[in-house]
Amino acid sequence: MRTMLDIARARYTTKHYDAEKPLEDEKLEALLEVLRLAPSSVNIQPWHFYVIKSEAARAALMPAVKDFNIERVREAAAVIVFAVERGISSDAYLEKLLAQEFADGRYGAGAPVEGLDKLRRTAVRAYCGGPDAGERWASEQAHIALGCLLMAAEGMGVDTTTLGGLYFEKIDEIFGIARANRKSVVAVALGYRAADDANAARPKSRFPREAVTTVL
Which cofactors must be present for this protein to function (predicted)? Predict the structure, then answer.
């Protein structure tokens, strides 16, 4: 069984995918569950994941792909677009979130639910009170989920590429994301590396630990 350190050492950004090797449904389902279970500040879960898998969806996405990512999007088995919810500070969203926590048995008898709910509402409205209405904060939470996905995929033997090189406003128009009161912020390609993917053979390059770590 691979350790988390083995996974961190092995994971890399795939540059070329094998278009003839589809991603197994059970692995995709497992990775979507990893995303659903990802941690977020005050359990806010401000995300929605759009899975681009069909040829029609992929063709619709292509006009929003910057030139250096065209091959990855075209050849990967699937692309997941991460979008953030824009209404996370609303009473409706916060009440829905609390109701889900009750349904999942998060609060036992005597739990100080009212105080916890008030604390979360105070935090969320503080984060969402600026000029960006909390979009940066929500995006940071989505990137936590992205990190979980990247590590989980490597652990399952699935290759990935984080895709920042997309025209996200165009994606929001194409897939009706803006109309759903959401905003896409990042995407990831999933699949299996091509045999000639040179990046797979390159040593991982990182600053030494002493350059990035201070133990106090």
Answer: FMN
